[in-house]
Amino acid sequence: MNNGNTASTTGARNTATTTDAPSTAHAPSTAHAPGTPGAPRKQRRRRRAAERRPRFAIAVTALFFALLYLPVGVVVLFSFNSQKSLTVFEDVSLRWYTAFLHDDVILDSLGMSLRVSLVAMAGSLVLGVALALGLVRSRSRLGSFAGLVMLVPLITPEIVTGVAAMLLFKGLGITLSTTTVMLAEITFSISYVTVILRSRIAALNPEVEEAAMDLGATRRQALRLVTLPALLPSILASAVLIFALVFDDFVLAYFTTGVDPQPLSVRIYSAIRFGVQPTINAVGTLMLAGSVGLIVLALAIPRLFGRRGGLDLLSGK
Amino acid sequence: MHPTPVHPTPAVRLDHVSKRYPAADDTYAVHDVALDIAQGEFFSLLGPSGCGKTTLLRMIGGFTDPTEGSVLLDGQDVTGLPPNKRNVNTVFQSYALFDHLSLADNVAFGLKRKGVPRAEIRERVTGMLDLVQLGHLAGRKPATLSGGQRQRVALARALVNRPQVLLLDEPLAALDLKLRRHMQVELKQIQREVGITFVFVTHDQDEALTMSDRIAVMNDGHVEQCGTPEDVYERPSSSFTASFMGTSNLVPGTYRSGRVVLDAGPELPVGNRPALTDGSRVNLSIRPEKIWLSDLEPDMARVGGVVRETVYCGPTTTYLIELAPGVTVSVLEQNTVRSRMEDRWSGGEQVEIGWKPEHCLVLH
User: Fold this and answer.
1) Which of A68, A128, B108, B310 is buried deepest, with most CB atoms within 10 A?
2) From B88, which residue of chain A is nearest by alpha-carbon distance?
């Protein structure tokens, strides 16, 4: 009952209210304890100390975010530098953005990355949703086995997947190209779609699809008119996630791409090997803006469907 | 159980249907059920959970195929046809509303699948939503409705298609008691208004008694008894029906030329029962409200006992009376007879109880 002396961070007021709840008889003595004239001042000082403590926490948090975002901030800042220097900021200009817009190689790479992301998104959605539907509704042993195998790409180191994909394409005599990147990325992304969708499908009420058939819909119509609309928020959320993952992907793209064009991530990597060009800063800033835009979109999608919170959809709950 | 023809072509005929699950030790979910459900009838399938009533309903709806026997709708054999090829509609226990569609679109779903002209769809949907008193909410999404309202949407969505038969799978189970009582009355009114055959699955015997034209009492995959509410309540043909339909005193004994010798000792006259031979094991079944505690009439069967427990329940009082060691019957008395506390029987008192012979059933 002498919590007043150990002065918890939440302060004396809180201590009094928590201790007097179970034993009312002790409450008055706790509230005024210890019964010396100097006690209230001491308590006040402690309360002040307690209020100061969060400042330390705030400082740590600030430091954390600074370390996390400072490098990114430097990239953004120097993308607007009028000089080629990466250490001295001279003046604000859009010089490197203009340079980027006139760099056909980088633009080709950006175009390819966008195409690959869109195709991988569409392909993995179709296959991933179908797989998730099949896995949830399958009652056979093969089904539960497939459900486990499906998870393997998520835990395989990406470099293994990348090398394996490359060896497969080489072994089959397929020339590495934009198409091989797309195939590899689709394969890699299916698991993500399936994992997100599977829990949503399992949570669906099976009677709803039966109701659609009861009302005259064929099995296919029931899927199209009732089941897919119910899954739409999850499908859109995984679409955004896959787009972002594939657009950012380097390892898989590096091993499966042809020579020309190369995906943006691979292109940036090769460019940096020959010395850092400030154009890369501009590209990086634009990619950052694009990613933030996607996150905002991912958060907004569930709200459009009248649900609260967006990240729960990304985690598939 | 033989089907009793009520109408030349019954709305539903279950012709000795069975459902067996090979995986589960070859046990029958439904075993050799033969039932005729007449046109326009309010028919209830009543039984405890796991008795096969929902499986039977799913067979009529087309969600489950019988392993033996056939299902006929209006004389047409529909065994094996998928749900979308049958002119029946279902109100599901979970309501199964389409959450992404408005109420009006939910109700219009079936008509759109049938290709009904747009103007007619609008007219019928409006009419049906008005019938279930939800016309003013037509544009709302199901998630914004209360349980009772969702239940009505499910009903409207099924009824708007004017099915031959409406199947209802415990549609009131999720509602609280007061709303359930209200919906029982409303459902019955709607059924009378639209004149469609209702097949209603429930485990609540009060619900079945108040709403049905006929009841099939099910137990362990087969039909125990099928008849009007009065039949199954007043004249249960088996011990199961007697105990499932409300409370009943079941007292074991042996039949001996017009009398039953209870296992606990006393001997009671039950009249001559040609169906029984001397020495048959029987259960005497007497409803608690059919036993008299006072003003016994001369033609009554009488037996003495000791009051063991008095349970006051507002309008009624239940007495537990021990006839002999181990044989206790419950007796229900309206509180108009003995209205004041001090007038009621109390524990330990010696009483004589009696009943009219026709109220005492001798069951195998």
Assistant:
1) A128
2) A214
